[in-house]
Amino acid sequence: LVLSLGGLQKGISPLEMAGAYSAIANDGEYIEPVFYKNIKNYVGRTIITPKQEKRRVFSKETAFILKSLLTQPVVGSNGTATYCKIDGIDVAAKTGTTDSNYDRWLCGFTPYYTAVTWYGYDQNETVNFNKRNPAGLIWANVMARIHTGLQTAKFEKPTMVLSATVCS
User: Fold this and answer.
1) pLDDT by residue (tens digit) across 117-166?
2) Engineering a disulfide at 119: which of 43, 104, 136, 163 sits with its beta carbon 3.0 to 4.6 angstroms away?
3) 58 burial class (0-12, 13-18, 19+ CB within 10 angstroms)?
4) Mean pLDDT throughout 12-32?
5) In which element (H, E) is residue 120 found?
6) For residues 110 and 112, what is the distance between their CA atoms, to the nearest angstrom?
């Protein structure tokens, strides 16, 4: 289980985690993350554009099902990321905590952006933050601000995904 949350001594980085979550957000297409869109010279001409690797890693249908599952921490009655809601915009998120609260994570996305936050120390030390997830609070604040003024956006269900009600 700790592998999925990056809880190894030299585990997955926040950038790698962002790449993984963006593949879900991008309907199953992995697009190599970069730190810049382009570099321009003094007259405004683009001189460098990153070459991002792109490849399909799973189907649009699988991506939608993952999106649906990942909305539950945000909108579910027992959600661990309910503070990440953004009015009018679908949000998918997963919180994470390693043993002894050494690492705190929030990985999530909207139809607009993917963001990952990690909160911890280079040398393992317990994170105490008034019983709240500091990585999640940072994520929620940043994402709320960058979504200000954006149009309503929902995760689109592919036609091949079928729904059924199951009686408990």
Assistant:
1) 999 887 888 888 777 899 999 999 999 999 999 999 999 999 999 989 99
2) 104
3) middle
4) 95
5) strand 114-120
6) 5
Query: Which residues, other chains included, contact 118 with Cβ-Cβ below 8 Å and sequence gap of 6+?
Result: 6, 14, 17, 103, 104, 105, 135
106 DSSP β-pair partners: 95, 117
pLDDT per position as a tens digit, 93-119: 999 988 888 889 999 999 999 999 999
CA 136 distance to own-chain centroid:
11
Cα separation of 62 and 28, whole Å?
7
pLDDT of 61 higher than 60: yes
Q: Which tokens go with 123?
A: 């040398």
Q: Give residue 33's Cα distance to chain centre.
A: 13
Give the torsion sign (CA, 11, 107, 146, 82). negative
Rounded to two decimals, the pTM is 0.85
C-alpha 112/C-alpha 107 separation (Å) is 14
